[in-house]
Design goal:
Elements (H helix, E strand, L loop, with lengths): L11 E6 L9 E5 L2 E7 L5 E5 L13 E2 L5 E2 L6 E2 L5 E3 L19 E4 L2 E5 L22 E3 L3 E4 L5 H9 L4 H4 L15 E7 L2 E14 L2 H7 L3 E12 L2 E9 L10 E13 L2 E11 L12 H8 L1 H17 L17 H25 L1
Antiparallel strand pairs: 1-10, 2-3, 3-4, 5-6, 6-7, 7-8, 9-10, 11-18, 12-18, 13-14, 14-15, 15-16, 16-17, 17-18
């Protein structure tokens, strides 16, 4: 099950955070090999369409908004309303507008501070909904401005596997969020269905653990009992949570925690868009500078960790370009259990999407 070109087409993916979509701003994205244009209509709704003018394929995202709220194509001036219907063709003002002059609508959902797009076959969406991200935008939590977008030159499944496999914290992140002791923490696998989405991840309980330097800074404790989870909630997002307290005090007012959401949206089979957002309880301040929100400090220092992951992801992608033949076989470790379940799940979802496409074509 090689991840070199794995791509789940029929899934919800994050186009961005709600705050990024201001009224009358066009956003062009490539999501799962599909060109998509998104904007917030005058009534506040998010709309999304195939990002190609029906006349000559020029990206509508390169156009502009007119005074009446319609979007004008930059090439020949065809104008579209928020339903995707062409309402004006300047070169034939008195002629009929063809019934087919309508943008192909792309399913879009705005939920819990995120804007999600279904770039696959809209006929198979059914009851599928994006996973919930309740901490983002909640009054009980403080969520810092997200890091990103980042655009790793790597298949997005490599990022998902990276996030589920924190045994790489040593040596890749040694000295910041990792150490060799982290590799020795027992791992429990999480595998369940939540609201129709396949949730796969890891759970690690640690006692009397001496935290690496960056985690001491983030959470304020050097020696802790802690609970650490990394879970793929769907092909489009992974949730990380850490809860830590002095030994013997987990589950009390001494708890300090963060929730990190990683959104991984495939652009194509060799690149993706990655956002990272950090949420902490609204009253949780940085231990070493009262008055500074903990989520803000964690976000400010996280790029050092990301930079190390980016190097590893792109090195992996480059090596996937070489044929394995009989000369190379991946070996798998006990710590890879969740990673391998996620890989199998994603490969099966990708295959199911290909079968759906073949049936539709037949």
């Amino acid at each position: 099950m090689i991840t070199a070109d794995t791509l789940v087409i029929n899934a919800w993916y994050v186009a961005g955070f709600s705050e990024q979509f201001k009224s009358r701003n066009l956003h062009g994205k490539t999501i799962a090999e599909k060109p998509v244009v998104l904007w917030r209509a005058d009534d506040g709704r998010m709309v999304a369409f195939d990002d190609r003018c029906v006349h000559k394929r020029v990206p509508l995202s390169k156009g502009r908004f007119m005074a009446d709220g319609t979007v004008e194509c930059m090439y020949h001036g065809l104008c579209y309303d928020s339903s995707g219907r062409c309402v004006l063709i300047p070169s034939q003002p008195d002629g009929p507008i063809p019934n087919k002059a309508r943008l192909h609508q792309v399913p879009v959902i705005e939920q819990d501070g995120l804007v999600w797009v279904w770039a696959g076959d809209p006929k198979v969406v059914g009851d599928a909904r994006p996973p919930r991200t309740p901490e983002i935008g909640s009054v009980g939590w403080d969520t810092a401005k997200p890091i990103g977008p980042m655009h790793p030159k790597a298949n997005y499944v490599l990022l998902i596997e990276n996030l589920l496999d924190i045994s790489h914290f040593y040596p890749l992140h040694d000295g910041n969020v990792g150490d060799i002791a982290n590799s020795k923490i027992p791992v429990e696998v999480i595998d369940e269905i939540v609201d129709g989405n396949h949730k796969i991840g890891t759970l690690r309980h640690a006692s009397n653990y001496h935290q690496p330097p960056m985690l001491v800074e983030w959470l304020g404790y050097e020696v802790v009992d802690r609970i650490h989870t990394h879970c793929m909630l769907s092909p489009g997002i992974t949730r990380v949570e850490m809860i830590a307290a002095p030994p013997g005090k987990l589950g009390t007012d001494a708890d300090r925690r963060y929730v990190i959401y990683h959104t991984h949206t495939p652009i194509d089979r060799k690149s993706h868009e990655w956002y990272l957002s950090v949420s902490c309880p609204a009253d949780m301040q940085w231990s070493f500078a009262p008055g500074v929100k903990a989520s803000q400090h964690i976000t400010a220092t996280f790029p050092a960790v990301i930079a190390e992951d980016l190097v590893a992801l792109e090195l992996q992608q480059n090596m996937l370009g070489f044929p394995d033949n009989d000369s190379y076989t991946e070996i798998h470790l006990i710590s890879d259990s969740a990673l391998l379940r996620a890989r199998k799940c994603l490969v099966e979802m990708a295959a199911a999407g290909r079968q759906d496409k073949a049936k539709a074509a037949g």
